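Hi L.,

You mentioned the student needs an example of a multi-chain input paired with its predicted structure. This one should do, with 488 residues in total across all chains.
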Amino acid sequence: MGEVIVITSGKGGVGKTTTTANLGTGLALYGKKKVVMVDADIGLRNLDVVMGLENRIVYDLVDVANGMCRMKQALIKDKRFDNLYLMPAAQTKDKTAVTPEQMKKLCDDLKKDYDYILIDSPAGIERGFKNAIAGADKAIIVTTPEVSAVRDADRIVGLLEASGFEEPKLVINRLRPDMVKRGDMMDIDDMIDILAIELLGVVPEDEKIVVSTNRGEPAVADETSRAGKAYRNMVSRILGEDVPLMPMENFEPSFIDKLRMFFGLKVRTR
Amino acid sequence: MKNKILVAVLFGGIGMTNEPVIIKGTKEGITIVVEENSNFEDVKKVIYEKLQNSGNFFAGAKVFVKAKNGNLKEDEFNKLQEILTNFGMSLQEAQSPKTLIFPKPNRSRVLILKKTIRSGQKISYRGTVVILGDANPGSEIVATGDILVLGTLRGMAHAGAAGDTTAIVAAYRLRPTQLRIADVISRPPEDKEESPPFPEVARLKDNIIVIEPYNALK
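Structure written out for the whole complex:
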């Protein structure tokens, strides 16, 4: 029986789709799990573009939910990685084209054949959000170090708690350690202090993400990308490993940090 | 459970003053209050209609009749008894109503919440609210009594919402977006000064909200 994880944020543009693509790819590539990513952003689909699969779409989520095609017909196998599938959203319809009940059924069906089902939620707290969380067992909340994004994340945590989700996990995206150091950006502790949920990982701002997103090749597979490394760590944590947060500095780790790393100790992130 | 529903259903009737009869659910059973100067035929008709509309919902209930202008006449009492028996209810002896004292907002009522109040969540309570956790920005706490936050208060808090000017807002760390006590509204100064690392209490003094360090000895 698989696990359904919804990736959500409230605010738009914080990196839900990027996070979904990278975690999905990572789980399939490094975890050797059977993974399907579901794009729940009907009408504004993106996940197919980020994965570089948009030209393979024939059927979509709305077709499956309404019984217009079989599940297998809508699922797109990834072009590079085995065990990785995409369920695209419809682009010509809107969020009301499926109901939360239909989403729940779809997730329950997918659970039988896949280890992980990642649902890319749309921004907002309305129908699209309700659809996205309907069939999910767990939730990952993505935020950026901005007051508005954290505020929206807080709202989402509240809504998830009200819907019976226990312990959603937090991903802090696009952190700029140099700005945090100068006191120009919220730091990790500030955000954890407000949101009071467990941290899944921190992704540093990385130009490579833009490149990989445009190319349709998730950064998680790029060994030289710092953001990719952060996603790989998150994948390990989802799989149950205890991986320390990676050091956030862009510069060389300090001598003490090197010593700590040498002994396999936790390296402080700031 | 049944009592709860009863009160809820009948609640609408309480405020209506034009009616010759008011039916209330009380903890003893059902009380029918006959208003002063009302015609007994009207009274009978209204009671009959009300009971008819509610089917056998009230079956088995004890009914008290209170007439505001003294006691009912014996034949009136008997007629009422007849109607009520038809609906499966038993009429107890009629009493003249005691003066009902409208309850003041009870400050001793306390709502204790062991959780973080998050953005978009609103707590409204007739009484005192105690939060064992934080109240985040974008949240609202409204209480007719005091508001005590045993974590950090970052949202909006309105104490004494029904006009109680003695109400206070206290927090382990008081960093509200806005504070209201009774009908006075205040916000923290724009220039971001470091807020003190100790518990504080906000209260009204001369119609201005003042914030003082919490001092357990006072």
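You could point out the following to them. Chain A has twelve helices and eight strands. The radius of gyration of chain A is 18 Å.

Best wishes,
N.
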